[in-house]
């Protein structure tokens, strides 16, 4: 009887747990689309694009020195964990004329990790405001064209977020001032969207191999 119990714990329980979590990923592992068809940023200076990338989108504004701590939080809690995925990037929209401040920020970020997937795109006030307004979020852009919030944009240029968040109901963005929010919410949501695309890729490859 004792041996049977031990075998049950060692072999059956892990299998049940695996099936439970695998089922959860397949049935519930979809990050809701909150806003569709956001314009690309290929016309911004810097060469960045949303197309075919999972993008963490931020708005640095002109007070870049004040956003340095936010950038460090994002780098340490999100970029270091997910920057290895080839279709993942961080894009910061910045008003034209702030190039020198961005170079200084990049130097500081470079002391913490490699930053090859940190992209900075420079646009006019109208261009930056247009992209932000297209998100249709409940977050306000500061007068300097910046915000401490970042947003998840999928490969089809849709804003992803939560429609059943326990604190906010609909959650459009993540506050980079809060390490707890990055750890407890944003990290989970980035995991979900990466898993979503990888499951879709595996399915497509399996479908092709079966033809």
Secondary structure: number of strands:
9
Q: What's the CATH first level of the largest domain?
A: Alpha Beta
Helix and strand composition category? alpha+beta
Number of domains: 2
Radius of gyration: 20 Å
Shape label: globular
What features would you describe in this structure?
- The protein is of the alpha+beta class and 211 residues long.
- The chain folds into 2 domains: 30 residues; 177 residues, Glutaredoxin.
- Helices cover 45% and strands 20% of the residues.
- The protein has 5 helices and 9 strands, in the order H-E-E-H-E-H-E-H-E-E-E-E-E-H.
- The strands form 2 sheets. Strands 1, 2, 3, 4, 5, 6 and 9 form a 7-stranded mixed sheet that branches. The chain has a two-stranded antiparallel sheet with strand order 7-8.
- The N and C termini lie far apart (49 Å).
- About 8% of the residues have low confidence.
